[in-house]
Design goal:
Length: 281
């Protein structure tokens, strides 16, 4: 904080700084405990076809069943996790749960054939020297190919080293894993990264979708993103679709998939295949 305020500012001690430090120490302790005591859960949110609302894929989203605070979403802890090595353990937990879920016979038979589940991967995870090997070993352990997974990255991974990011992505893609560029449009140089990174899908950030039916600028931006995606031969997913009007507006673009509360909130794994099981033949 002192740094951000510029070097010409004198750092003054403020009681809120002590409170913040205490909060972070507590959070770190609680997160370690969460790993030990298995308090993390993976929820799934459907991504559906614009044509008939049928299931196309699903996104795995982390939840923390905190012993006193209840169910927490990542906004309460993800930044801290990503700035610590714990994200590697938590990321491994997520991919493990997802693979276990996909490999379970009684569950897989209820899901659409070869359903792909997408997993959010932080820069720190992707650049971990053992990452590719760990992913390979996990797939092997569950007898799955990478064709059941998509990794969602943000352009943040490219900031560190775009050449390294591309190389790691290539290795993962040889396993059959596809990539999505998440939160598209919210960063600094989305277009340049979109061109360079070997991604298959663009996820249009919720902030562009919110006012799409009554804000001409947002509508124009989404139209541009759709045109770019089509030029680059990328799939598109609209994030945070909450209203029927938004879905109707998006339907003018053939092929765009929808993700949002209009269709379903993220739900616990056991409920997912119950609610989204494939229609009986
Ligand atoms: P994201 O990857 O962009 O995920 C989409 C977020 O939008 C999720 O928030 C989802 O619950 C929320 N969402 C989906 N539809 C709607 C809607 O219609 N309305 C509203 N208001 N929200 C909607 P969530 O689950 O809180 O996750 C937040 C972020 O935390 C994710 O954003 C992702 O960046 C990160 N994250 C979540 N799980 C993981 C994980 O396992 N690993 C890593 N590294 N990051 C994760
Ligand atoms: Mg995501
Ligand atoms: Mg997103
Ligand atoms: Mg995100």
């Amino acid at each position: 904080q002192a740094k951000r305020n510029g070097k010409h500012r004198h750092e003054l001690f403020h009681p809120s700084m002590a409170t913040e430090a205490t909060r972070l120490v507590q959070l770190e302790h609680d997160l370690r405990q969460a790993l030990l005591e298995d308090q993390f859960e993976v929820y799934l949110q459907p991504i559906v076809s614009q044509l008939d609302g049928s299931l196309v894929s699903a996104e795995a989203l982390l939840r923390w069943q905190h012993p006193t605070k209840g169910l927490l979403t990542p906004i309460h802890f993800m930044t801290f996790l990503e700035n610590s090595n714990m994200i590697n353990d938590v990321g491994q937990l997520v991919i493990d749960r997802v693979c276990q879920y996909l490999a379970a016979d009684n569950i897989d038979h209820q899901l659409p054939d070869n359903l792909r589940i997408s997993i959010n991967v932080s820069a720190r995870e992707l650049f971990h020297p053992d990452y590719v090997e760990n992913v390979k070993a996990t797939l092997l352990r569950y007898g799955l190919t990478g064709q059941r997974l998509e990794f969602e990255i943000t352009e943040g991974v490219a900031i560190q080293s775009i050449a390294d990011a591309i190389e790691i992505m290539r290795q993962l893609k040889t396993l059959g894993i596809t990539f999505a560029l998440d939160d598209f449009g919210t960063g600094y140089s989305s277009l340049s990264y979109l061109k360079q990174l070997p991604v298959d899908t663009v996820k249009i950030d919720k902030s562009f979708i919110n006012d799409i039916t009554h804000d001409n600028q947002d509508a124009a931006l989404v139209a541009c993103i759709m045109a770019i995606a089509q030029t680059l031969n990328l799939k598109t997913v609209a994030e945070g679709v909450e209203e029927l009007d938004q879905a109707d507006w998006l339907r003018q673009y053939e092929g765009v998939c929808m993700q949002g509360y209009l269709y379903s909130k993220p739900i616990p794994m056991p409920d997912f295949h119950q609610q989204w099981k494939k229609p009986a033949a």
